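Journal club side-thread
Mid-discussion, someone asked how the predicted structure for our own chain would compare to the paper's figures. Pasting it here so we can look after the session.
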Amino acid sequence: MSAIDLLVTSGNGPVECRIALSALLGILERETIGLRCSFETSLGPMPDQHGAKSAIVSIDGPGAEQIAAGYCGTIRFTFKSPTRPDHKRQNWYVAVQRIDSRSESGEVTIDPADLRFETLRAGGPGGQHQNTTDSAVRVLHRPTGLMVTARDERSQHRNKALALRRLEAMLRQIEAEKQEAAKSGRFVANRTIERGNEVKTFKL
């Protein structure tokens, strides 16, 4: 079974939402590994010292569906801003949604000359096959700086195809935002994240 891909985004929120997003990635990784699943993160373009505005998280294993079901929606983080000590607001929001990387709708065109591939040894849970060959594939999309890794399949060829599908999913998000806001270089699924209906709340 291929991994479940989740888009995690801070929308158009301030820097504190990127801090919350980074914290959520750590929480997701710990929970995923605790359920003996594999975890892979692909950050959106232009991350800064506070983290990325968005990321795609790929989870594979028996508990992947459980994690996806528990986190899809709005996540609220409560903490005092470390960058603006006098700021009164303490609630910051991040959105999580599932991405179907197999979808053919809204496909984007990728120039092969813009891609750089490298192979690496597969790791994480998945049986003895994963540590015996360099079957995992990482692809870099030079124009955006997006980097995606696929290690789900035992075949290098299949991992390459999976990495490309994930890259296309990320680029579709960028294209959708460009069309909506007439701006380039953004990796945001929703400009407004729904508040008041969060599926999880964390206090940092």
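Post-session note: The CA atoms of residues 136 and 176 lie 29 Å apart.
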